[in-house]
What we know:
With about 525 residues, the chain is α/β, with parallel strands linked by helices. Helix content is about 60%, strand content about 5%. The chain is built from 21 helices and seven strands. It has a five-stranded mixed sheet with strand order 4-3-5-7-6. It has a two-stranded antiparallel ribbon with strand order 1-2. Strand 1 and strand 2 form a beta hairpin. The chain starts with a helix and ends with a strand.
Amino acid sequence: MNNWIKFVFLAYLLFGTILVGDYGLSMDEPVQRKHGIVAFEYVNDLFGFYPDLPNLTVEHLPSYDHRDYGMLFQMVAYGLELTMGIDNTRDVFRLRHLMVFVLFWAASWVFFRILYSRFHSVPLALAGVLMLVLSPRIFGNSMYNPKDIPLLCWFVFAFYTHIRFVDGKDRYGPVLHGLACALAIGSRIVGVVWPVLSLGYLLCHLIIQRSSKAELLLYLKRTTFYLLFLLVFTFMLWPVLWEDPIGGFLHSFNSMKQFRWYAEMLYLGEMVRSTELPWHYIPVLISVTTPLTILLVILSGLFVMFRNAWKYKQKLFIQTNLGQDTVALGAALIPLMAVVLFGSVLYNGWRHLYFIYPFLVYLGVLGIDTFINVYRRKRSKLIVKVFAVGLIGLATWDIGNTAYFLVKYHPHQSVYFNFLAGDVEKNFERDYYGMSYKEGLTQLLKRYPDKILQIYTRNVLGKINMMVFTKQEAARLVFVNNPKDAKFFITLFIFRSQKEYREFKRNDYPFNQPSEFAIRVKDYKTLEVIRLKDP
């Protein structure tokens, strides 16, 4: 491996560890920390790692309302917090942000190795990593998201270990794949797609190839070891299974099919219920939040895969590279189809499916590789040259535009939309995670350095972000429950009912009061501070 590639990844690691401190606190982080505490205390009560540690909760994990969440990452984060003796929320969540980023960085390195082993090209592998890392929504979330980014990482690791598992010469493949799949399942029950993919592919491979008795016995042995390690690791890493393995698993599976979140969201200019989302919700959200060049290469990769399926048919399960491509396609499409089939409740954009993004990028790299091969064969034709120049020009413009966005609108990369979104303020929710609050509250504190600031919001995200400020700063931020008691109203333009949305559209109070300032990304607002009274 070239030393300069290692330098690039080390520079990315250093760069990311510096940037994580710029991000605010997302909606899920405090409750995810609580999940980790509940799980850690359950394990600690059983094994006594910290015998003198008092419990912070009265919850019992096997009966905990949110036990369907994967808690391994949160549990480890809380354990590390205790080990390091961190006693303030500001550093607690900065540590968690750092853990999320380092895990994502490791996954990006593994993703590079996957692409390099498949395409035998450093530029192609690096292009794939850049598409993964620099897609603005993924870039932003990789700095803080404690739910969706770890799952994305476990899926990348599972793909890597799948490749080693189906390679009959890799003696550690079954163990590593069992561990990676257990991490994915323990993070979210959708991780069960990996045993299905791996065993389904292997079964098709052996049947279609008409394997010899010796090969059948070899893979029977490997599969037995894989399943054994999968069950053991899943049980070990998912404490909710310890008292009732079957009941705990079924509870999580049923929760995944119909998650308990019932509200309305702004989608394509209309308020829609989370339980009544149209089938095109996810495809549209992916299309309007992914840079155009990446979107086009993903579509080209999908076209190549469907062409290969038509052209090669059964060879998809025999030839190594085609088989790897087929599994990547399955990892991307099976969860999408499951969402439609089960009518799963989704919200906050498509973040619940971020884990399919690396596989869409993989297919995009396949599309690029196929185009390069076609160009090499037919580059003497003028139309091919013109087409290639046009594509390179479009890609250069879009990559430059995306890089400009990442820098100019830091740390608000998570609210990126491309031009396909149209009027963003009219059509879509923006900062559903509340990451703009840190900058908004910081600006407010600077504008009124000696004032106590009474603030009214319609969600808890403002209060949550008090935890990233010093005690002196947080003491000046007073959140009240009635707008009549407030001097400022802060809105993210996130509405959870038709009534709230109508108030905004009609410019009712408090939206009709003068604006103190707004945070804008491109031409749309992500947060606005409205002055209700003179401070």
